[in-house]
Each structure stands twice: as structure tokens, then as C-alpha cells.
């Protein structure tokens, strides 16, 4: 049964990563009213669903609470009946995308696809965006870490072997090429060996 | 026979009965059949279903009813799943909080000392609570389409308790269940091991009845794959079934069970101490009173009694319970679903290659006989045991409709005479 009045969609967002929840919430602003469930499980989570009566529930794929949400339609007939979005979608492409991005969605029985799809698409995009941001952050952390290690190893070579900065770096690069390793690995080795003798 | 694809990702949920996958991986049975497997730990059955449907995993540790359920219009699976090998019979238990246990003993002491323990005392507690205007009992189950759900409902229904009205049923994932019991959010639950053992170990509750008491041979987990995947990769599928069958035979040896407990204990798998995993594996299970009429070795069956055979009568029984409890909303052809979702033909090919005896019939009467027997309609005779239901019911797979109608408690949403009709 399609709703006649265009009241805003109420979306319940269940995600254990607060940073991501924020990104999803920002993305859905204007498209839906977003409510978040803090870390609740089982009966407590059901109570929140009962109170909020959301039109859609968007949840982290990895959340164990998904099984709790799944049971709503079978035990509590007065509650909204969530349907995994995937059924509505013939070729399953959206489902695959959602699973890959790590998002699952449940919608109230009978809510029109026209209204829910954009919300879900935004959610998928936002989950992905978070994933990309996270990976970028991890990569820059790693880069920074590598640079620190290389600097320390270089300093050590300069000090112990009396090499210039350029020569010390060139020596590490040669070692890396000969051993088929990254300069970071070589630097790690130099520091590890040095620590043996320092003690 | 070379498998079409050799690199596989298989999903599992951290439970004792993920053991066949863990053993096949750690003891090299997958490699023996040319399979390189990556085991992927998943947090929920919904996750297993969706990842499998979307192709993010090739195969999965699955609740046995999930395969036939995936063929129903309202089961929310985007793909149809099939199973050609079952992992185990039994292995679950119903645990009640210490407080509820005392209430039950006070309400009907005789009922509590009967073996197997019925829901009669619980019914008295519920009636008492409702009379006094208090909340009814909150019951935790793990997934709508699970043997746990049907076992629990069967046990309640056998005493005339309506699980959709007289108690409050909630679903929580197995690893949260003990915590929910501790915090008083559920009064009782039905869950697989090691979670009943953990509840007893922490002194929070008592396992009062095992799934094996409710149905002596309740099918539990199975290997699930997409129907289309099975069609595209028949030799890979047979290799997978064969390697798991070897793991299951290995697990059936009680001498190997402690080793299995240590393998499962790893952080990569269940991540609990082997001491908590061992009781269910060595056959004791979680039953504090230790007075069950079910012999200890029947607590968890990995191979004997033709435990790995995908009996179509099991699929039909699950469908009968789905219909009974209103999970089937439109007429469906139960026989077509059972034939499609359960594939004894594939099992027989794998069993023949291994030289393991396999049944030659696809279905059997469930719940009878009530004594040990020998299955002769097989490639070699197979010793079978009694398979009684707690209420003495008998399930004839050729008469599903009358069986469903015969229950005193049901919440049917389809006409039981229509179970062989429909799309």
C-alpha cells in the first residue's frame, strides 16, 4: 500500500562506527529523518524499533543485530514489517552493491520503491565513501610511519658509517633493490639490528 | 575429477558445529580434493544469506531450514540455495535463567522432574505471571528460519503454549544470548553450543531440555551453496561435499573431539577456551542435572545414523513448521521445494567415491520407529536409532497437510490442503 501523504521517511541507522554513522546521517539529510540506535541488542533494540516505527532500517552488514531485525516481521505483527530490500530488486545488482559496500536495509512492507531507493543509494554511496576515507587515512598513517623509520635508519647510517645523507639513502635503496624489499623493510632491519648492539 | 574452480571462500558463524569446515581446513581435507579454501567468519545468519546470495562467498555453514526457506517468496533471499551435505543432528538446548528455573520448580515440581522436561511448568509460570498482571516470559531464539526456532516452538506448542501470543519471542545472535540472560533481557533461550555451557558455567541459567529431547534426531546445520553455482560447478561441489564428508567422519571419532575443541578455540574460529567447547563435543552437552533420557553420545551427531544425508523428509518437516507458524504466506509446492533445495543425488555421488554407505531412498517417516533399526534401502545397511518427537508425533512426508492440521497450536496463514500446489 503506497502512502498518499509525503511525510518524511524515518530511517533508523544501526552502525557501531560513529564516524560512519555521521557520514551516512549527513548524506541522508533532506532525504529522510535519521534516528540512530546506540549499542542496543535483542529486546532493547526491538523496543527502540517499536517506539520509532521507522519506515526503513539501515544497518551495517556485519552487525550481529541483523538477525534481531529479521525476526520483526515474523513475531511482532504490530511492528513495521521489514523486508530485505533485495527481494524488490529483480537482478540483484543493487543487493550485490550493498553487500560489497557493507550496508543492509530493511523497509516497511508496502513502502514504495520510488521513495526508498534514493535513500538506500545514498546510504551505499556514503558507506563506500567512509570506506575510502578510512583506507586513505590508513595509507597516510602507514606512509608517515614508513617515513619516520626511514629517517631514523638513515640517521643511524650517517652516524655509524660517517655517510652523507644522500649516500645513506642510496645505500638503503641499493640494499632494498638487491634484496627485493621495500626501503621501509630495509630500514626496519637496520633499526632492529642496531637495537641488538645497543643493548 | 578436477574441480572447475579451486579457490573458494566459505562463510561460517562461530559455533561448535562450524567444526566440519574448521577440521576440513586444518586437517587438509580441502587440499586433498584440490580446493584452496578461505574461511570467512560472519556475525549473523542474515549476513551468511546475503553474502552467499550476492556471491561474496561461494558456500556457507547454514541453518538447515535456510535452504528450503530460500525457495519461498517471502524468505528474503535473492537466490535459491541448495544443500547436498548436512553437518550434524542435534546440538542445541533450551536454557532458562536461574530465577525462571526456581519459578518453574515452584509452579509444577513434578513436571520439572519428568524426562524429557516438558513446557508444562513453564505454562503454569506464564499463566501465573499474566494473572498477576506481570510481563510474560521473554524467549530468545537465534533466527526465524532455524531449527532452534522450530524446536522451541514445537516444545511450547506440545503443551498448548502459543509462541506468538503467550510468550514474547525475540531474536538475538548466539554470542549475545548469555549476556542478554545475565541482564534479564531474556528469561530463557534456545541456542547451539557452546552458549548453553557458558550460561551454566557462569551460573546464570540451566539447560533444561536439549533439542535432541524435542526431536531425537533434529537436523541442524548444513553446507549451503547457490543453486546456480551448483549447476555451474558440479565437480567443485562434489569435491567440497567429499572433503566435508571426510571431515565429518573424522569428527565422528570421539577420540578426535578434544583435538577439534582445540582447533575451534582459535581466535580465527570460535575464540573461546577449549574447556568450554569440549563438553558439547565430547557428548556431555550442557545439562546440569545430567538426567536426560538421551544418551550422552547423541547430544551432537556428526556422521553416524546417516546424519549427513540431506533427507528430503527433513526439508518437508521444516516446511511444515514454517507453514504451522505462519512463515509461509502464499501457497507453495512443498515437494518441488524439497526436491530442489535438498540434493541427496549429489551426496550419493560423493559418498560412492569415498566408499561410504549412502541411503537410496530420498525420504523417510520421521518420529518413528521408537527403537533402533537398520536402514537396508542403502548402498550398505546403515544403523539408525529412534527418532521420536517429544509429543510422540509421527511425520509422514507424503501427508504434510494433515500433519500440519493435527497440531493443537498453530498460526497458519495458508490452507494446509494446498501444500502440494502453488508455484
How does this model look, in words?
The complex is a heterodimer of chains A (199) and B (423). Chain A has 199 residues and is of the alpha/beta class. Chain A folds into 2 domains: 9-135, 3-Layer(aba) Sandwich (D-Maltodextrin-Binding Protein, domain 2); 139-198, Arc Repressor Mutant, subunit A (Orthogonal Bundle). Chain A has helices at residues 18-28, 42-52, 66-70, 72-75, 93-101, 113-161, 165-179, 183-198; strands at residues 9-14, 32-36, 56-60, 82-84, 103-108. A 5-stranded mixed beta sheet of chain A has the order 2-1-3-5-4. In chain A, strand 1, helix 1 (18-28) and strand 2 (32-36) form a beta-alpha-beta unit. In chain A, helix 6 (113-161) crosses helix 8. The N and C termini of chain A lie far apart (76 Å). Chain B has 2 domains: 7-89 and 219-286 and 304-384, D-Maltodextrin-Binding Protein, domain 2; 92-214, 3-Layer(aba) Sandwich (D-Maltodextrin-Binding Protein, domain 2), CATH 3.40.190. Chain B is 39% helix and 13% strand. Chain B contains 19 helices and 12 strands. Chain B has helices at residues 19-26, 29-32, 45-54, 66-69, 98-107, 109-113, 120-131, 147-158, 174-182, 195-201, 211-214, 227-232, 234-252, 257-265, 274-282, 312-324, 334-341, 344-354, 400-405, and strands spanning 7-12, 36-41, 59-63, 81-82, 92-97, 138-141, 168-171, 188-192, 205-210, 221-226, 373-375, 382-384. In chain B, the strands form 3 sheets. In chain B, strands 2-1-3-10-4 form a 5-stranded mixed beta sheet, sandwiched between helices. Chain B has a 5-stranded mixed beta sheet with strand order 7-6-8-5-9, sandwiched between helices. The model of chain B has no long low-confidence stretch (mean pLDDT 91). Classes of the chains: A alpha/beta (199), B alpha/beta (423).
Amino acid at each position: 500500500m503506497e502512502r498518499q501523504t509525503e511525510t518524511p521517511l524515518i530511517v533508523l541507522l544501526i552502525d557501531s562506527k560513529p564516524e560512519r554513522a555521521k557520514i551516512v546521517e549527513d548524506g541522508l539529510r533532506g532525504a529522510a529523518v535519521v534516528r540512530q540506535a546506540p549499542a542496543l541488542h535483542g529486546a532493547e533494540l526491538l523496543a527502540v524499533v517499536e517506539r520509532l516505527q521507522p519506515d526503513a532500517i539501515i544497518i551495517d552488514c556485519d552487525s550481529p543485530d541483523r538477525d534481531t531485525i529479521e525476526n520483526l516481521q515474523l513475531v511482532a505483527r504490530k511492528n513495521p514489517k521489514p523486508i530485505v530490500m533485495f527481494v524488490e530488486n529483480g537482478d540483484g545488482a543493487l543487493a550485490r552493491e550493498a553487500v560489497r559496500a557493507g550496508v543492509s536495509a530493511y523497509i516497511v512492507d508496502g513502502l514504495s520503491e520510488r521513495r526508498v531507493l534514493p535513500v538506500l543509494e545514498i546510504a551505499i554511496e556514503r558507506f563506500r565513501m567512509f570506506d575510502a576515507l578510512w583506507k586513505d587515512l590508513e595509507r597516510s598513517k602507514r606512509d608517515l610511519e614508513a617515513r619516520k623509520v626511514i629517517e631514523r635508519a638513515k640517521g643511524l647510517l650517517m652516524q655509524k658509517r660517517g655517510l652523507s645523507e644522500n649516500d645513506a639513502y642510496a645505500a638503503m635503496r641499493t640494499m632494498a633493490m638487491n634484496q627485493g624489499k621495500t626501503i621501509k623493510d630495509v630500514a626496519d632491519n637496520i633499526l632492529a639490528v642496531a637495537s641488538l648492539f645497543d643493548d | 575429477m578436477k574441480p572447475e574452480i579451486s579457490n573458494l571462500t566459505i562463510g561460517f558463524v562461530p559455533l561448535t558445529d562450524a567444526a566440519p569446515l574448521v577440521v576440513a581446513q586444518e586437517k587438509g581435507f580441502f587440499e586433498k580434493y584440490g580446493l584452496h579454501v578461505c574461511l570467512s567468519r560472519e556475525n549473523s545468519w542474515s549476513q551468511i544469506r546475503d553474502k552467499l546470495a550476492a556471491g561474496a562467498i561461494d558456500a556457507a555453514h547454514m541453518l538447515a531450514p535456510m535452504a528450503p526457506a530460500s525457495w519461498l517468496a517471502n524468505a528474503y533471499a535473492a537466490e535459491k540455495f541448495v544443500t547436498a551435505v548436512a553437518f550434524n543432528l542435534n546440538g542445541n538446548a533450551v536454557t532458562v535463567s536461574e530465577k525462571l528455573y526456581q519459578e518453574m520448580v515452584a509452579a509444577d515440581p513434578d513436571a520439572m522432574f519428568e524426562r524429557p522436561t516438558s513446557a508444562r511448568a513453564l505454562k503454569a509460570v506464564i499463566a501465573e505471571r499474566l494473572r498477576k498482571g506481570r510481563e510474560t516470559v521473554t524467549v530468545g531464539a537465534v533466527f526465524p528460519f532455524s531449527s532452534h526456532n522450530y524446536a522451541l516452538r514445537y516444545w511450547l506448542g506440545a503443551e498448548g503454549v502459543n509462541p506468538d501470543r503467550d510468550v514474547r519471542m525475540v531474536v538475538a545472535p548466539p554470542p549475545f544470548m548469555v549476556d542478554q540472560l545475565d541482564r534479564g533481557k531474556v528469561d530463557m533461550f534456545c541456542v547451539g553450543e557452546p552458549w548453553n555451557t557458558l550460561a551454566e558455567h557462569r551460573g546464570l541459567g540451566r539447560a533444561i531440555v536439549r533439542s535432541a529431547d524435542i526431536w531425537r534426531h533434529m537436523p541442524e546445520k548444513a553446507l549451503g551453496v547457490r543453486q546456480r553455482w551448483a549447476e555451474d560447478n558440479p565437480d567443485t561441489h562434489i569435491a567440497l561435499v567429499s572433503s566435508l564428508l571426510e571431515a565429518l567422519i573424522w569428527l565422528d571419532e570421539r577420540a578426535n573431539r578434544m583435538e577439534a575443541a582445540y582447533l575451534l578455540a582459535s581466535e580465527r574460529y570460535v575464540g573461546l577456551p577449549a574447556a568450554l567447547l569440549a563438553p558439547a563435543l565430547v557428548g556431555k552437552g550442557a545439562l546440569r542435572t545430567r538426567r536426560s533420557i538421551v544418551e550422552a553420545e547423541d547430544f551432537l551427531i556428526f556422521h553416524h545414523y546417516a546424519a549427513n544425508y540431506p533427507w528430503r523428509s527433513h526439508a518437508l518437516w521444516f516446511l511444515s513448521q514454517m507453514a504451522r507458524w505462519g512463515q509461509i504466506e502464499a501457497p507453495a509446492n512443498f515437494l518441488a521445494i524439497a526436491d530442489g533445495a535438498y540434493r541427496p543425488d549429489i551426496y550419493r555421488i560423493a559418498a560412492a567415491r569415498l566408499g561410504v554407505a549412502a541411503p537410496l531412498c530420498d525420504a523417510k517417516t520421521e518420529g518413528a520407529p521408537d527403537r533402533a533399526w537398520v536402514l537396508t534401502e542403502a548402498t550398505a545397511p546403515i544403523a539408525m536409532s529412534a527418532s521420536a518427537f517429544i509429543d510422540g508425533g509421527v511425520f509422514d512426508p507424503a501427508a504434510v497437510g494433515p500433519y500440519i492440521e493435527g497440531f493443537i497450536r498453530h498460526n497458519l496463514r495458508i490452507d494446509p490442503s494446498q501444500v502440494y500446489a502453488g508455484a
